[in-house]
Amino acid sequence: MKGSNLGEFEELVLLTIAALMNEAYSVAICDELSRHTDRSVKLGVVHAVLNRLEEKGLVKSQLGEATKTRGGKRKRFYELTMPGKTALIRAKSMRDQLWNMIPSLIWKNL
Amino acid sequence: MKEQRQHNPPAWAQRFIAWYCKPGLVEDLIGDLNEYFERNVRTIGPRRAKLIYVIDALKFFRSYTVRKPILVNFFINRIMIGSYIKTSSRNLMRNKLFSSINIIGLAISMSVGLLLIAFVLDLRSYDRFNKNGKRIYRITNVATFKGEQGGRYATTSVKTGRLIREKIKGIEEVAILRNNFSGDAQVGDNILPIKGFWAEPSLFRIFTFPMLEGNPATALKDPYSIVLTETAARKLFGSQDALGRMIRLDTLNYQVTGVMKDVPFFSHISFEALVSLSTAEQLKRNDKNFEKWTNMWSNLVYLLPSENADMASIQSQLNAIAKEENLAEKDTRIQLGLLPLYNIVVGENLRQSEGGPGSLGPHMPPVVLWILGGLAFVVILSACFNYTNLSIARAMRRLKEIGLRKAIGAGKSQIWQQFLAEAVMISLIALLLSFFLFLVLRPQLINLAPEMQRTVKLELSPAMIVSFIVFSVTVGVIAGFMPAIFFSKVSAINALRNVLPVKAFKHVTLRRALVVIQYTATLIFITTTAVGYVQYKNILAFDLGFNTQNILNIYMQGNKPDVLLNELGGMPQVTALSRSFIVTGVGNYWGGNMKYKDSHDSALVMTNHIDENYLPLHGYKLVAGGNFISRPATAEAVSEVIVNEQVVKRFNIGSNKPRKAIGEQIILNGRKMTIVGVMQDFHYGKIDNLIGPVAFTFWTPGEGAIINAKIQSDDMPATIASIESEWKKIDPIHPFKAEFYDQAIEDAYNEFSTMIKIIGFLSLLAISIASMGLFGMVVFTTETRLKEISIRKVMGASFGNLVYLLGRNFLVLLSISAFIALPVTYLFFENVVLINFPYHTPVKAAELFAGLLAVLVIAIIMIGSQTMKAAGSNPVEVLKSE
User: Fold this and answer.
1) Among B484, B467, B478, B436, which residue's Cα sits nearest to residue B88?
2) A51 touches chain B (CB under 8 A)
3) Mean pLDDT by 10 residues, chain A (110 residues)
4) Where in chain B are the domains?
5) Are the beta carbons of A70 and B56 separated by less than 8 Å?
6) What's the CATH number where A22 sits?
7) pTM across the whole model
8) Are A69 and B38 in contact (CB under 8 A)?
9) How far apart are CA B854 and CA B95, in angstroms?
């Protein structure tokens, strides 16, 4: 099933949520991603991905306190669930394994 | 830097998101967009920020954000629908007066709509019986003669048909249909005048005219073949077999090669018989004109392009043909156009040559339909206004119900659904009633004008019923829209306290505005009727410059007039007799080409051929010279002409002095003639034409004739009957055809009388609807102010004071309407209608105010009766119950 594997962007979003800790809501995630990836990340895409991740059970969300900004609308804060965390760790360990297989000779001329 | 003005994202975009977005996601989503918006306002300015906001709002319309369709909600509410119906019907029953005003008003107005729908549906069903109907086209000739701006003609030349057949690619069939085949068909002793077309075999491959007997592929091939319709065949041959038999038509024998089904009623061409076009070719063998490109007066050409044909390419090929043919012509330019079959009956006005109107079938310009539709719309809207007004005015009565509904959880949308449903329910009840009205009015409409009988049947069909129901639901929605919005906005607290929010008082202005609009429309209708009627009567009574009283015009229909003339001369009731070629003043024209000394200067003059008794009988006034002197017996011998003053003026004959024009020579249609008399100007055409040059020449026995008989009789029907019996002796075949001159004039302006009847009818409806609405409003206001009136009375207000108090507002509204409606009507007539009539009489105040007076009287009676009832009520009775 597709759901068990993470897409590249999904992985990035999950990592950003983890990195932002308590400040992980859609606009912040979007800004953070734009800063780190050097490309303009569209809110619509992030929104859709967050929605999908929540459906998969990798993240959960709750509404925060109302503030004066945003026209009085509350923010929705995301955090990783256990399956979300394990999915990230799995993805990282899978990559690490692959990295370890590469003989260091290859990077010599870089 | 100064504090920046607060910028807000577009509210409608926010509402849009809130509308489509799932409730769980909406807050967060709008919040995000707001945050971006605030950021964008700072960086790229408010205008672009707003644009981006709107674009984003649209972009988020995605599968995961959108909530379940609204329809689902509606079905969840289906239990409520039962409740709505119940409360609505209770409400209907409780307020019988208001319900009946609404229902009757809607029913009356909707009956007009139903008639119009039936009418339009009938017109739209024309030619739909043809299987290939969508693909059939007719050639339209756009002809320009001598630089004179060209007209669009339905007819074209035989040559066009031929050229299309030879040269144009992408065409399956072409058929030439030649106009005006007619004659007296004779089988044994049985004689029947028969009318039809000359046609080609391909006609049967283009149109769906099923053949009962005979072979459609060959029936119209050989010369002297005739195909009869079922009815014509039965009339001629009775129950005998018609196929293969001979028919004598005038002097020629034709063989019946086919019997076809009767032409359907809804066909733009209709005929009793078709004769092969090859017959016409044989008869016209020696006529060089027959095949000419410019001989475009009596042929219709129909095309059936092959399937998936490129019409643009066919059009360009037609243009190429026209270009090539025009090279050979000096003064004439003809362009060929394509007219889809379905646009023939409802479509542009096309000119046609002699053969008279109707010879090319029924026709209705879309403009007329739009105008009628507009008028019907105004009447229907007026009834809708009644509903809106009365519902809102009576809002107080429903507030408790709405409050309760809202308190137990009804949303805005449910309230307006309820009120819309109620309005639709009322309009459906009204539909039943208006359907009966429709059945009653239908024969009236059909019999309104002879053309109408030929054009429509207004028979019921499933499509018609469906349109009726759709129409009625639409009317219900229009009527119920405002009340629904109004009621759904009332807050639960206000509703339960039985207090209308301040906003509701705005609706008082709205109600007044609606009443004013309603009465303005009504007044425009009624004054238009009055003014139109007076103008119409003026047209009929107009002094044409000659006398038309008691003159009977008898059409000889090809017979020599002498015998009948003798017989009529012997009748004591006939005081004078004359002969003429056509009847003038009713829209018949017979043009000629006149030249004076300068051979390059020619002018179109209108002509008539008359005998020596014509001028005295009709009382034409001569300003110089006298009647015809010679009595030529052949057209070639005619050498005298009587002209009107316009001719003298046009050619400056005798330096514009009628006396000096006598004896001058002019050339009429290439023949030299001497002017023997100059008539005072008179109306040769209809009175919407300016008086132009006219020339009368002597009638000769070689031409068709009309006998003009001046009749002095106390018993007209008996006199006519005895003339008719004389006619029977001369011509037993053709029915007697005669008409009084005055009647002919009336017929000539028949479209005006039809128009006035229609507008008159509509204004009657408009008045009754507006009056009913006003009545409802008056009843309501007096009812609600009954206590106030009683207190005023106790305090000493007089009867007159009270009536004035109650009626004042309505009269103010009516006078506003009058101030708008009367000038509008006046300006409309003076600037739009009457400028087409150079000889019209000015619109008088009497006609304008007659309508106003009628409306005012009705209104005052209604207002008066109710206010007087209220003012006369006993204060004790009213005030004792609290």
Assistant:
1) B484
2) yes
3) 68 90 87 85 86 88 80 85 90 89 75
4) 11-67, 71-126+363-497, 133-361, 502-542+745-882, 551-744
5) no
6) 1.10.10.10
7) 0.73
8) yes
9) 29
